[in-house]
Design brief:
Structural class: alpha/beta
Distance between the termini: 32 Å
Strand content: 15-25%
Strand order of the largest sheet: 3-2-1-4
Shape: globular
Number of strands: 4
Length: about 110
């Protein structure tokens, strides 16, 4: 198994790496937050994974597109805009990993800055 540095708060990225142990997977990162700090998918990109990041907060203010390879979309995940964005931006309907990290507590407690 390839080792990777974890950036997620609860080691979700390590679990996905252990579970799949492959390069080139795909992900949806819903409520993605900061492009690196606390990210459940940043380390997976280092293994060639591709995906899409979504958050109600504008992660571009934290430099998402300068840091990440995967595109980011600011939208409310509970709205119809998520479904439309998935239709428009997913090349394949098969996704290996969905990170749905919608708890408010972690962000407020960590007070993440860019």
């Amino acid at each position: 198994m390839n080792e990777l540095k974890s950036f997620s708060f609860e080691k979700q990225d390590e679990f996905v790496n252990f579970l799949f142990d492959k390069d080139g997977g795909s992900f949806l990162d819903i409520a993605c937050g900061h492009p690196i700090n606390g990210s459940n998918t940043y380390s997976l990109e280092s293994r060639g994974w591709i995906g899409v990041g979504f958050d109600i907060v504008d992660c571009e203010l934290k430099g998402w597109s300068k840091i990440r390879k995967s595109p980011f979309f600011q939208l409310d995940a509970t709205s119809e805009n998520l479904t439309k964005s998935l239709r428009d931006n997913l090349k394949d309907k098969l996704v290996d990993y969905v990170s749905l990290d919608v708890d408010v507590g972690g962000r407020m407690e960590k007070n993440l800055s860019p």
